Amino acid sequence: MKIKFLVMSILLLVSGIAAASGALTNGNTIAVTDPLNAAQLVYISGYEMTPQVFYPGETGTVTVSVCNPSNTTVAVSQPNLMEPHVKIVNSGAFATATSIGPGETIAYNFVITADGSDGTYFPLFTVSTNAYGAQAINSQIKLKIDSADIRASIAAKPDTFSVSKKDTVNVSVINPRDGDITDLLIVPEANGAEISPDESYVGTLKSGSSVQVPFAITPDKATDVTFHVSYQNGDNKHTKDVVLPLNLGDDKTGAQIVVNNIEGSTAGTTNTLKGDVTNNGLTDAKSVLVTVDSPATPVNPNPVYAIGNLAPDDFSSFEVTYTQKTPGAVPIVVTYKDADGNTFTQRFTYTATSSGATAGSGSVQGATGTSGQGGPRGGMFGSFGSGLNQVPVIPIVVILVAIIALVVAWKKGLLKRFTDKFQKKDPEPDDDEPKEQ
Q: Closest Cα to residue 260, out of 346, 357, 192, 180?
């Protein structure tokens, strides 16, 4: 009996489906004649959520699509989302019934507030049809609430910054959330530093992805740079700040100027300073200029001495002429540029009793020597290069050649012949002198 009842039920179900789908109107609707059958064909075709993942307490939209595949208009009413942690903000927008025409799809846009804590929720969407005897249409949708925030940090920066020197830092933004964020914008702010660009627009940052945004910073003083990171989660704006202290110090990779071998002379009212400028750093010093500062006054013929470019471990001589009304220390000013065109200034101090100079005040003792304009200082024979290469190669070679020549001459007996010529010979006896008996 039970088997017979089951078979009859299957046959009725198949016949119902065949009757409902037996005819098509214009190829895209199901032909039915009974309003109840039309109402029973209405279904929920999909839903969308903005934002994809809510922050706790955040407002967004849930859009549910309802489709009528029949060739008969169906009236629906009382749409609702039922979940204690989902509050519908615009419930008054659905007070009247809505007609869904043949083959049409309508969308219900719920403005909601997610009041729950972190977790996944399944609100029940329901909508009723106005056909007598038809049941309400129900479907669960998935809604996620997550308080996890994006992460923003400084991914790359130098150990220290230098005044007037441009360095690059990278701001990293990571989106660990299950939903995308949009309109990602980074705006730097600082008092006492030049930053480029003024802002950087990233746009959409996909779920589980990251981005690094470079900024060029040229500080004028020790200060803080605040990077304001803003983004949208749906229509909700969020902000996050990253603070970067600009700690000033010596540039470990830049040029480093050393002045030594200073000697001074006076001719009339004009004084002359000669010395060497060495680049003891790791990068080129470009457009190197040497002059003096107050109380000295630069004068012709060499008020400013242009050296040009100095590679690491390279050096060049300079000669500056000046006048000075009162005796005392003479500031030596060396300016140079880096590869980005930033100008740097180093000051040294020379006193008449010192034979060297060091940055700031005081001096370093060092041997003085002759100099020539535009080239390296050297001894009698000159030297090559700089650093360990500043060895008097030519004098050493000459001495070695002389020693070898003397050894060869000694082995061949040439030295003995040479010395024999200068030895005194015994005088021969005089014929007039009496001989001994």
A: 357
